[in-house]
Sequence to fold (178 residues):
Amino acid sequence: MSNFLDLVKRRASCRAYKTDPVPRELIDKILEAAMEAPSACNRQPWRLAVVRDAARRAEIVSKGFIPGIQMRWASAAPVFLVLGIEKSFITHKVAPAISGVDYPLLDLGIAGEHAVLQATESGLGTCWIGWIKPKEVRRIVDWPSDITPQAIITIGWPAKPVERKTSRLPLSDIVKEC
Fold:
């Protein structure tokens, strides 16, 4: 097994964090990994907000998450990486109307996954959260109206070992050879 595949298999959602701070140099590596992601027409539509301030993180948990699924565990994560999209007219509005493919979401997913893999390599835990209120999160991170929050990735030191609890479908169930 390659080192990369080992890394991918180690990555799992962390829902229990130590409150210890994450060093700035590790956050910078995570941001650089996200920045290196490919994107449609190299538009790089992702916008990232690093939320380290405890009061803002608490506000995101209390006001920015959609009610119904309790995610109080997120409050302990010392860093939230808010992932947003700034759309360009041609690549992100005209092209999807023609093709039916939402290129900005694909691009953001790639950038976000680059970030979580870098965090995993650094020994950090992460969890994607898409159960958010975009307008409320935008207000909390003080983004302009042309940036739409799509997801939040919690980042921090795992409070306990993170193990993948769900199995993966066999390749024969998800791959079609043509």
Summary: The helical segments are 3-10, 24-35, 54-64, 89-99, 103-121, 134-141, 171-174. The chain has a mean pLDDT of 93. DSSP finds seven helices and four strands in the chain.
